[in-house]
Design brief:
Structural class: alpha+beta
Radius of gyration: 19 Å
Protein name: RCG44284, isoform CRA_a
Distance between the termini: 29 Å
Order of helices and strands: EEHEEEEHHHHH
Organism: Rattus norvegicus
GO biological process, one term: protein catabolic process
GO molecular function: ATP binding; ATP-dependent peptidase activity; serine-type endopeptidase activity
Strand order of the largest sheet: 1-3-4-5-6
CATH architecture of the largest domain: Roll
Number of helices: 6
CATH topology of the largest domain: Archaeosine Trna-guanine Transglycosylase, Chain: A, domain 4
Helix content: 25-40%
Number of domains: 2
Shape: globular
Number of strands: 6
CATH superfamily of the largest domain: LON domain-like
InterPro entries: Lon_Prtase (IPR027065), Lon_prtase_N (IPR003111), Lon_prtase_N_sf (IPR046336), PUA-like_sf (IPR015947)
Largest sheet: 5 strands, mixed, barrel
């Protein structure tokens, strides 16, 4: 397992509702913000905040933000990704909106929604998913074996691609440099996978269960530089 210090997120997070994309821990994506509550979150939190903590938000997938803040919130997806807002770019054309560059930090689970307006805020429970302190030697051994097996299968599939292509060679080097436990999230974010598949990976909060998925490594074959 990795010796990197664990990430600690606030127990309360403002929620950014996304419908057409899924952010995984360790990955970065751009998302457009143009709906009522999401706009309020950017304007009130990201643009006016002065601390690092003010740039951390909870990204909730598979949940559309209602067009008007007079509408009730829809049911929220239970698992989200805590994210760091790296960049915020605004525009008024063709209508007011912001483009956010966000980087996933770790998973969390919504405990309860504390408020819905002007933007939703929830009490959250951090889910590192990577069992930092396995309870038994058997668990540690199982995690180690599964992690190494996943790594070997991933390497085999990548080496079946054209290694003369720079992007493929870069992916091969990436496999060696990343902590084994980070491979499922990172690979899923860079290979050609559907949002449904990414959502399934996000919802896998047990590392043993995730690494045991028979379809996960095969997704690597979908990588296209």
């Amino acid at each position: 397992m990795s010796s990197v210090n664990p990430i600690q997120i606030p127990s309360r997070l403002p929620l950014l509702l996304t419908h057409e994309s899924v952010l995984l821990p360790g990955s970065t994506m751009r998302t457009s913000v143009d709906t009522a509550r999401n706009l309020q979150l950017v304007r009130s939190r990201l643009l006016k905040g002065t601390s690092l903590q003010s740039t951390i938000l909870g990204v909730i997938p598979n949940t559309p933000d209602p067009a008007s803040d007079s509408q009730d919130l829809p049911p929220l997806h239970r698992i989200g990704t805590a994210a760091l807002a790296v960049q915020v770019v605004g525009s008024n054309w063709p209508k007011p909106h912001y483009t956010l560059l966000i980087t996933g930090l770790c998973r969390f689970q919504i405990v309860q929604v504390l408020k819905e307006k002007p933007y939703p805020v929830a009490e959250v429970e951090q889910l590192d998913r990577l069992e930092e302190f396995p309870n038994t030697c058997k668990t540690r051994e199982e995690l180690g074996e599964l992690s190494e097996q996943f790594y070997r299968y991933s390497v085999q599939l990548v080496e079946m691609l054209d290694m003369s292509v720079p992007a493929v060679a870069k992916l091969r080097r990436l496999l060696d440099s990343l902590p084994r436990e980070a491979l499922p999230d990172i690979l899923t974010s860079i290979i050609r996978t559907s949002n449904k598949e990414k959502l399934q990976i996000l919802d896998a909060v047990s590392l043993v269960a995730l690494l045991s998925r028979p379809d996960l490594v095969s997704l690597t074959a979908n990588y296209r530089p």
